[in-house]
Amino acid sequence: MTDDIPPTTTPSRVTDRPGDTSPFALGLLLRRAHWRAAAVMEEALRPLGIELRHFAVLIVLVDRGPTVQRDLAVATGSDKAGIMRIVDDLERSGLAVRKNVPGDRRVRAVEITPQGVEIFDAAHVAAEPLAELLVAELGPGEPEKLTELLTRIVYPAGGEA
Questions:
Q1: Which of 101, 116, 127, 129 could form a disulfide with 107 if both were Cys (CB 3.0 to 4.6 A apart)?
Q2: Per DSSP, what are the bridge partners of residue 97?
């Protein structure tokens, strides 16, 4: 009777080690790569007195200009309370200011200050050698190929994430 039952296959155990064929392997590797990249970038930002969460907000402000906190939360993957703390930190450091939005007294937009722009620019200079270390194990052209592949994952068919 048991001869009629096809053998079941045991699903592969999920790891992020090279060669894992689990459907979760790529996601786990991307998560671990994110952790490593975030640690490298945190090291670059530490001497500037900011953290990656602060820099993420500065990126949005440089890219979009003054932005309401609700939109900052969405753009950075933060929650309402978290974005308030980050903006509070940036204000205390003189890197951003909250300004009233004309026509809506309840909403305030966050704007980067000239000092915030200086820190933003300094972060790029500080990150350059560390970013090179991040891809030091890759061969010629591979960092660019990795960037291209990750871009296609994040922005499928040229769309937005």
A1: 101
A2: 111
Q: How much is the pTM?
A: 0.80
In the numeric block, the tokens 């939109």 are attached to: 71
Distances (CA, A) of 129 to 43, 80, 141: 11, 34, 17
Distance (Å, rounded) from C-alpha 158 to C-alpha 93?
37
Q: Which of 127, 141, 144, 153 has the alpha carbon at shortest distance from 38?
A: 127
What's the pLDDT tens digit per position in 1-58? 556 666 565 555 667 677 777 888 888 889 999 999 999 999 999 999 999 999 999 9
Sheet of strand 104-112, all strands in order from the earlier edge strand to the far edge: 67-68, 104-112, 96-101
